[in-house]
Amino acid sequence: MTEARWPDSRRVPTARPAPGTPCWVSLMAHDLAATQEFYAQLFGWTYRPGPQQLGPYVRAFLDDREVAGIGELPADRRLPIAWTPYLASDDAGETAEMARHCGGTVGVGPLDAAEAGRMAIASDPAGAVFGIWQPAEHLGTAVAGVPGTPAWNELVTRETAEVGKFYRTLFGYTEEASGDPDADVLTLFLEGRAVASVHGVGNELPRDRGAYWMTYFEAADVDAAVARVVELGGRVVRPAREGAYGRIATVADPEGAVFTLVHTERSCQEPVRTA
Questions:
Q1: What is the distance, to the nearest Å, from the Cα of residue 35 to the centroid of all Cα atoms in its chain?
Q2: Each residue's pLDDT tens digit, 26-47
Q3: Could you say which DSSP state residue 75 is in?
Q4: Angstrom distance (rounded) from CA 45 to CA 198
Q5: Where are the alpha helices (DSSP H) in the chain?
Q6: Whole-structure pTM value
Q7: Which sign, positive or negative, has the C-alpha torsion 274, 186, 7, 126?
Q8: Per residue in 44-63, pLDDT tens?
Q9: What Pfam families does this protein map onto (predicted)?
Q10: Strand 129-135 to strand 117-123: parallel, antiparallel, or no bridges (unpaired)?
Q11: What are the start and end residues of each CATH 3.10.180.10 domain in the chain?
């Protein structure tokens, strides 16, 4: 197990997020109705329509506050399903162009999402997919620190040096390496606040999957949430276990989207790593 700095997960944006801030998570699924039902049963989410530029899309809510987004892929797009973090930008077009210049790829956009903002979907030089979000009316996730909300985002990649430079150039992050000499882990900071981490796992990264971003969701009881995932047709990727700062488990929804359940202690300022 490795460690990285992690902020108070209860902090939520009240103004336009600084560029590079993970501000939203979104999932593109094959069966939107079934996916909505899975997460409603697991996290208690309710839904309202969102921007439809990429097809059917809903925003998930907890107590009338936005948490995440779920969209539906076209029937002929049989793509792997994954949760995607969106990183804030003051200019999505400029950030997308910089991503290309730094060795990344832009797969979608930039395009307007109605009055909500402007977005693009890109991948870093290692292939990990992330979103770029230029906020307008929609600032991002509006609640944190309660069950069913995003708690953290971690990039899992083969090694941190190249992708660390990519994100540092793109968003101006500062970095802090783990104190463990055997761990290739970076914490990314904006304005002195930890916002995400990069975990180099070497040959442990499956070659058929490639680098990816992992989204952590808060759970009141990780073991109970894992059992509920299985009841609802999902599966366990890594069983529930104790870490240095809490209990975590990695699971997948019925379509295969992998995410991590975590129960964070209110006094804890550090995350539990996935490996």
A1: 17
A2: 999 999 999 999 999 999 999 9
A3: T
A4: 29
A5: 32-43, 92-101, 160-171, 222-231
A6: 0.91
A7: negative
A8: 999 999 988 778 999 999 99
A9: Glyoxalase_6 (PF18029)
A10: antiparallel
A11: 22-135, 150-264
Where does 22-135 sit in CATH, by number? 3.10.180.10
In the β-sheet with 184-190, what is the strand arrangement from edge to edge?
174-177, 184-190, 193-200, 150-157, 212-218, 258-264, 246-252, 235-242
Distance of CA 152 to the CA centre of its chain: 7
Which residue type occupies 255?
Answer: E
Q: Which long-range contacts (CB under 8 A, 24 or more apart) does 97-104 make?
A: 98/169, 98/170, 99/124, 99/132, 99/166, 99/170, 102/166, 102/169, 102/170, 103/166, 104/166, 104/170
Domain at 150-264: CATH code: 3.10.180.10
**Strand, coil or helix: what is 166?**
helix
How far apart CA 228 and CA 241 sit, in angstroms, is 16
Other residues' Cβ atoms within 10 Å of the Cβ of residue 255: 19
Q: Measuring CA to CA, which residue among 193, 127, 128 is closest to residue 154?
A: 128
**Structure-token match 């700095």, residue found:** 5
pLDDT above 90 (res 248): yes
d(C-alpha 238, C-alpha 251), whole Å: 7
Looking at residue 54, its pLDDT comes to 77
Residue at 130: amino acid letter: F
